[in-house]
Amino acid sequence: MVEEVFRAEYGRAVSVLTRVLGDIDLAEDAVQDAFATAVRRWPVDGVPASPAGWIITTARNRAVDRLRRAAKGAEKHAQAALLAHEPEEGEVGDVPDDRLRLIFTCCHPSLAPQARVALTLKLLGGLSTAEIARAFLVAETTMAQRIVRAKGKIRAARIPYRVPRDADLPARLEAVLAVVYLIFNEGWLDRADLADEAIRLGRVLAELMPDEPEVWGLLALMLLVASRREARLRDGEIVLLRDQDRSLWNAALVAEGQDLVRRCLRWNRPGPYQIQAAINAVHSDPPTDWHQVVALYNQLMAIAPSPVVALHRAVAVAEVEGPAVALLEVDTLDLDRYHLFHAVRADLLQRLGKNPVPALEAALERAEHPAERDLLRTRLGLAAADQQDRADDDHQRDHDPHPDRHAAGLRRRGRRR
Amino acid sequence: MTQKYLLGIYQPDGEAPPPEVLDPIMENLAALNEEMRAKGVWVFAVGLHPPSTATVLRAEGDDVLMTDGPFTEGKEHIGGFTVIRAEDLDEALEWGRRLAGVLSPLPVEVRPIAV
User: Fold this and answer.
1) Can you tell me whether residue A355 is helix, strand or coil?
2) CATH code where residue B74 lies
3) How far apart are CA A26 and CA A18, in angstroms?
4) HSE-up (13 A, CA, CB side) for residue B32
5) A21, A30, A63, A308: which has the highest count of C-beta atoms within 10 A?
C-alpha cells in the first residue's frame, strides 16, 4: 500500500514541499521521512483516509522538526516559525500547479538534457538514483554527481519554480514533452518500467495541461507504441511491424490511444506528437493504409521537417510508389551516422534485387541496442548467403551457352542449396 | 531579494573588427546598457583590453611569481562583462539573450554571482 502511494504521490508531495520549503533537497528529505514513517505506522494504525494528504502534512511537520533541530542561527528559527504558523492555502488538497512548476524546473533549458531526464525521474517519478543509473547504464556515482550538480545549479542560478509565462510556454512545454518522450524511448524496447513511468508522467501532464493538444498527442503516441510492446520482441530479437503477431497487441491501449488521436483531430491544432500519434493509429488499424501514412508524414514534414522524418516518410513511400522511388529519396538524406538510414537503404536495395550487404554492414557498425544489432546480424547473414548464391549463379552463367534461357532456373536452384 | 549575474562576453583573440563593423555594435551595446540602467537591472559593465596585455601573479610561499599573458591559453578570452541584478535565471537569461543578440556571433555566459 505504501509502495503504491509512493509511486502515485511522491512527485506531488515533493512539489508541494518544494514550494513550502523553497528548497528541493529539504523537500525530498522531508517526503522520504514521511514515507518512512508511513511504512512503520500504516500497518499498525491503518491507512489514513487521504494517504497523499497524510504524507504531505507529515512531511511538513518533519521539515519543521528538522529545521528546529538544525536551527543554529536566528534565520533558521525564523524559517521554522514561518513553517509552523503560516497557513498554506490548499496545501493538503490538490494543488496541481505545484507539480507543473516542478516539471518546468526539472526540464529548464539551461540544464543539460541528461540532467533534465534524471531530475524528472527522481523528483516527479520517485525513482532512486540507483534505479536511474541502471536505466541509463551509467555508474551510480556518475548519476549521483549529475543530479547533485543539477540541483546545485537550480539553487545557485535560481532556476525559477514556476510555470513559464504564456510567451515562453510553447518552447518550454516542448522541452518538457521532449524529456518525457526521451524517457519513453529509452524504455520502450526492453525497459517496460521506464516506458510506464513516461506514460504516467504523460498522464500527469495531460491532467495538468488539459488544453494543450500536444500533451495529449504525446500521450496517445506513447500508448499506441506501448500497445505493441509484447509483439515487438521475439526471443530478444526485434520483430518488424509487418511481421508482428497482432493478437499480442494490447487492445485497451490501442483503443485509448486511437480515442485520444480522434480527440486531437477534432481540436484541429496539429503538432508533431499528434501527427506521429495519428501515424501510429493508422498502423494500429491493419492493414495499414499507406496512402494515409504518407499524407501524415507530408504534414509532419511541413511543420517539423527533419532528415529522420524524411527517412520514415520514405519507408511509407516505398509501400505506395515502390522501393525505387523511395530509394531515390533516401539517398538524398544526410544521415550517414544513423543506423536506421542504412537499414532502410538495405531493405530497399534488397527489394530492388540489389546487394544490401554493404548497407547492412554500415547499419550494424552504427547500431547500439543489442536487440537491434541481433536483428541486423540476422539480416546480414541471410543477405550474405543470398549474395553468395547469386555469385555462384553468375559464375555458372559465364559458362552457360544460353544464359538467358537458364538464368532464372539456375537462380532458383542456387537458392535452394 | 534579487540575485546578481555575470554576463561574460567571450571573443576570439586577434584584431578587433574594423570600425564600420564595430561602431554599430558598440552603439547597440550602449543602448542596451542604457535600457538596463533605466530598468534598474544594470550594476556594472566593462570592456577589457586584449589578453596579450594581461599579467598573471601567483603566490608561492613568500614569493609571488609573475608571468606574461593571460592565465589560460586559448583561442577565446573574456572580452568584457556586464553585471546585472535579476529576479531569477529566466530574467537574467532574457537580458543575456538581448546581449548575445547585440554581440552576435559572440557567446555570452550567464553565471550567478555568489556574494
Assistant:
1) coil
2) 3.30.70.1060
3) 8
4) 22
5) A30
Place of cell 508482428: A244
- Residue B61: exposure state from Cβ atoms within 10 A (0-12, 13-18, ≥19): exposed
Task: Out of A108-122, A174-188, A319-333, A340-354, pick the least confident.
Answer: A174-188
Through-space distance between the first and last CA atoms of chain A, rounded to whole angstroms: 61
**What are the pLDDT digits (tens) for A64-87?**
888 888 776 656 655 665 565 444
**Spatial contact of B2 and B87, defined as CB atoms under 8 Å apart:** yes
Q: Which of A317-321, A406-410, B26-30 has the lowest mean pLDDT?
A: A406-410
- Could you give the CA distance from residue A325 to residue A168 in angstroms, rounded to a whole number? 41
Q: List pLDDT tens digits, range B43-85.
A: 999 999 988 899 999 999 999 999 998 888 788 899 999 999 9
Q: Which residues contact A172 (CB under 8 A, 6 or more apart)?
A: A104, A107, A109, A164
User: In sequence order, what E strands does A232-378 have?
Assistant: 233-234, 237-238
Side-chain-side CA neighbours of A378 within 13 Å: the count stands at 11
pLDDT score, position A78: 59
pLDDT above 80 for A402: no
- For chain B, how many structural domains are there in total? 1
Nearest to A160 among B5, B90, B112 (CB): B90
Q: Which of B25, B23, B7 is nearest to B97 (CA)?
A: B7
pTM, rounded to two decimals: 0.81
Looking at domain A1-94, does it have CATH number 1.10.1740? yes
**Is it the case that residue A227 has pLDDT exceeding 50?**
yes
Sequence-distant (6+) residues with CB within 8 A of B38 are none
ipTM of the complex as predicted: 0.89
Measured distance CA(A354)–CA(A363) in Å, rounded:
16
> Are B111 and A160 a contacting pair at CB < 8 A?
no
Dump pLDDT digits (tens) for A146-175.
Answer: 999 999 999 999 999 988 988 888 889 999
Structural domain that includes position B20: 3-112
Distance to chain A for B28, nearest Cα, Å: 25
Is A409's pLDDT higher than 50?
no
Q: Among residues of chain A, what percentage have pLDDT more than 90?
A: 62
The pLDDT, as a whole number, for residue A74 is 57
Chain A residues touching residue B94 (CB < 8 angstroms): none
**Distance between CA atoms of residues B42 and A325, nearest Å:** 59
Per-domain residue ranges of chain A: 1-94
Among A158, A159, A163, A172, which would you mutate to test the B interface (most chain B Cβ atoms within 10 Å of its Cβ)? Answer: A158
pLDDT at A201 over 70: yes
Strands B55-60 and B108-112: what pairing? unpaired
Instruction: Report the SS3 class of residue A389.
Output: helix
Q: Specify whether the CB–CB gap between A223 and A260 falls below 8 A.
A: yes
Indicate yes or no: CB of B88 within 8 angstroms of CB of A159.
yes
Q: Which residues of A touch B93 (CB under 8 A)?
A: 110
